[in-house]
Amino acid sequence: MLETARTGSLTVVTDDTFASVVLAADRPVVVDFWAEWCPPCTAISRSLAELAEEFAGRMIVATLDTDENPETTRAHGVMSLPTLLVFHRGEVVGSIVGARPKHHLRQSLSRHLAG
């Protein structure tokens, strides 16, 4: 079984693990594309960690550092941070660009929950 790093309830993905963790997942995955230098990224990280616990078993909440993982960032056309992409069965089915309050994130992501 593939080992993935976790930060709290968030699953950390990289260029090397993206396909196996995100694209091959058996449930929806939201990927937070972020960077250390991005204040709005920091602002939503706590909300995403809380939502990861709330959505446990129904959605994977993953995080990808864009500075350390440029291949995946480029491959998915991420131009602004933070960007959240929702994947289901390997396809992008939703996106949120820019920081949003937790209630907005919950509402937007809830429509993609499994089971």
Which helices and strands occur, and which strands form pairs?
Blueprint: E1 5-7, E2 10-12, H1 18-23, E3 29-34, H2 39-54, E4 60-65, H3 70-75, E5 83-88, E6 91-97, H4 102-110
Parallel strand pairs: 2-4, 3-4
Antiparallel strand pairs: 1-2, 3-5, 5-6
Domain Thioredoxin: 1-114
Protein name: Thioredoxin
Disulfide bonds: 38-41
CATH superfamily: Glutaredoxin
Counting DSSP E segments of at least 2 residues, the number of strands comes to 6
Q: What is the CATH class name?
A: Alpha Beta
- What is the fold-level CATH name, i.e. the topology? Glutaredoxin
Structural class, judged by helices and strands?
A: alpha/beta
The total of helices stands at 4
Strand order of the largest sheet: 1-2-4-3-5-6
The percentage of residues in β strands lies in 25-35%
Largest sheet data: 6 strands, mixed
Percentage of helical residues?
25-40%
- What would the average pLDDT be, to the nearest integer? 92
Gyration radius, in Å: 13 Å
Q: Roughly how many Å apart are the termini?
A: 24 Å
State the CATH architecture: 3-Layer(aba) Sandwich
What best-fitting shape do the alpha-carbon axes yield?
Answer: globular
Low-confidence stretches: none
Secondary-structure element sequence?
EEHEHEHEEH
Q: How many domains is the backbone divided into?
A: 1
Family: Belongs to the thioredoxin family.
Pfam families: Thioredoxin
Domain Thioredoxin: 1-114
InterPro entries: Thioredoxin (IPR005746), Thioredoxin-like_sf (IPR036249), Thioredoxin_CS (IPR017937), Thioredoxin_domain (IPR013766)
